[in-house]
Structure formats: C-alpha cells, structure tokens
C-alpha cells in the first residue's frame, strides 16, 4: 500500500490559474508480480492498482491519471 496526504498534485498555469488539484489523503493498494525473485525489484511486473481510501478531492487519481492531458493540452493551445 502507498498513501499520499496533503496536495499531492496541483497543476497551474504561469499566471497562477489552477487547472486541477488533488487534495486530502488517498491510499492505493498496488499488486506486483515478483517473478519468483522477491529480492530483485528490477524484474517485477505491475498487475493492478486500486484506490482503497479517499478523503478529499482527487480528480486526477479518479480519472485514472488522464485528467492531466485533459486540462494541460487545452491550456497550451
């Protein structure tokens, strides 16, 4: 498990306009396949990840981390 607390992500323009912001605490459960070598993280394979606890707003995490492109691309064009 891993967790982030506070403001793990805030994306804003150079003039200070906030495009998106995740705020609060979020806990992820991540599953890895150790490929038979638990002491060697170099050959581990990612299996899945899910949000198991959330307090606050986390639009980036809830979007599967696709919100970045949704807000940044229009702001740059």
Total E-strand runs? 3
pLDDT < 50 runs, ≥5 residues? none
Calculate the terminal CA-CA distance, rounded to whole Å. Answer: 38 Å
Shape: elongated
The largest sheet is: 3 strands, antiparallel
Number of domains: 1
Provide the helix percentage. Answer: 10-25%
* Cα Rg: 16 Å
SSE series? EEEHH
Structural class assignment: alpha+beta
Helix count, DSSP H or I runs of 4 or more residues: 2
Measured by DSSP, the beta-strand proportion falls in over 45%
How would you state the average pLDDT, rounded? 91
Oligomer: single chain
- In which order are the strands of the major sheet placed? 1-2-3
Task: Please tag this protein with its features.
3-stranded antiparallel sheet; 77 residues; 49% strand; single chain; alpha+beta; 18% helix; elongated
Please outline what is shown here.
By secondary structure, the protein is of the alpha+beta class.
Detailed description of the structure:
The longest helix has 10 residues, at 67-76. By secondary structure, the protein is of the alpha+beta class. 18% of the residues lie in helices and 49% in strands. Strands 1-2-3 form a three-stranded antiparallel beta sheet. It has two helices and three strands, in the order βββαα. It has one domain. The protein is elongated and about 50 Å long. The model has no long low-confidence stretch (mean pLDDT 91).
Helix-strand layout with pairing:
Elements: E1 2-12, E2 18-33, E3 45-55, H1 59-62, H2 67-76
Antiparallel strand pairs: 1-2, 2-3
